[in-house]
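Dear support,

I submitted the protein below through the web form. The confirmation email said the job was done, but the results page showed an empty box. After a refresh the structure appeared. I'm attaching both so you can tell me whether what I see now is the final result or a partial one.
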Amino acid sequence: FFFLMIRRPPRSTQSRSSAASDVYKRQVSTQSTWGDTFMVTVTRKLGLTVVLVVLLLEVGTAVRLRASNQLSEREAKKPVVDYYYESLCPYCKKVLAKSILPAITKIKDWNQYVELNLVPFGNAHVFPEGDSFRFTCQHGSAECQGNMVQACVLAKLPTQQGILMAGCIEKGKGHRWGELAEGCAQSLNLVDKFKPIQDCYEGNEGKILLAKHAKKQLSNNPKPNYVPWVNVNGDHTESLENSIEDNFEAFICKASDGKADGCDQGTTRVVQAKVQTGSFKADNLEKLRRLKKSAIPSKKGLASHVENAEDFDDDDEDEDENYDNENRDDEREDQSEDHEDDRDDNEDLDNEDDE
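What the results page shows now:
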């Protein structure tokens, strides 16, 4: 109200300099008003931009946390499969070649839904010797060397590469394990990773790794009494063992609820039906054949803790030598039967391929 009561004198009463000054003031006032408006507009736009950026960051963080939580839940729920085998067991070779390797080759993200551990030891015995170990195996020293080579392969390579290379070695002919391993490294483009593997099985590290496999196998309850032997989450049931040996791909698809890359609903339904009805191919006759050929003999040398030298006394070693001498003829018969089984398995594989 005070400012409204003030009247500016008529222009005629102002001097020329006062009139010029008044015009200048109006121009400055106009420019100041425009500048303030511009700054307000810019500030508002910057504020909105900052708010949008913060919101986007919050949304991105929430999405990442949700994905991480889902992955953690999946990791916690995924089944752990332990596959116990030995390098010269014909049926072990068949399971690797016909069930496990095709599954992990086809389903690229299988290890997001299932954890698979190969444990090459089988029907073997371990004895400490100073800072190292000595082994005896069902099919002789060649089998012990094959187990050791594969133990080094599995330890030195990532899971997928290690299983593929171990399976490649198992599918090879003969007992020249070093040559087989080197050939598989070339075929799988792993030549640059072969030297550490070679140093492992040619040195003491391979024996230490194989002794760890022995401890893992011997710590089971119940202990494996034939190979291949399959545990799921530390437990052994014949239905799950049969399902994995027969069709590991279907097992993975069931574990992932059909979400794994390469699964379809048909595969998931098939494995669910077979698990419920127990209609997998490993019948009682096949079980009896494996129990006969790959049964683990009960011996004192089979200790529960390989690190403790007192678990393996001299009497155990003498008993082991007596056992080998008394059963050398039986072992030769077993090896000849194994060769026959190899031929039969090859014929079965050829017939299945033809079909």
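Response: this is the final, complete result; the empty box was a page-load delay. DSSP finds 14 helices and five strands in the chain.
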